[in-house]
Amino acid sequence: MRVAEGGEPAEFSGAIPGAAGLHLVDEVALLRSEKQVFAAMLTVFANQQLARSLARTTVEGQENTVKAFVAYANAYP
Fold it and tell me: Is the pLDDT of residue 22 over 60?
C-alpha cells in the first residue's frame, strides 16, 4: 500500500500505466476495433518488456512473433 507524506493511505486514481483506459477514449466508436485494440495491446506489451530492461531487439522480436502468429491464425486474440 502506498502511503502519503502524513502517513495516511494514498488515494488510488485508477490510472495504471498501460491500462486500456489510458489508450482508448470513452464514448467513441472504434473503426476496425480488433486491429486498434491489437495495436494498443502490442504497445502495452512492449512497454512492459522495456520496463523490465529487455533489449529493444528482444522486444521487437517478440512483437514480430506475435504478429506472425496473428497472420498465421488469420484472427486477432
Answer: no
Q: What is the pLDDT of residue 12?
A: 52
- The single-letter DSSP state of residue 21 is H
The better pLDDT of the pair 66, 26 is held by 66
Give the residue extent of every domain in the chain: 20-73
Q: Is the dihedral of CA 41, 43, 49, 52 positive or negative?
A: negative
| pLDDT attached to residue 17 | 60
Per-position DSSP letters for 25-75, written without gaps between them: -TT-PPTTHHHHHHHHHHHHHHHHHHHTT--HHHHHHHHHHHHHHHHHHTS
Distance CA 44, CA 65 (A): 16
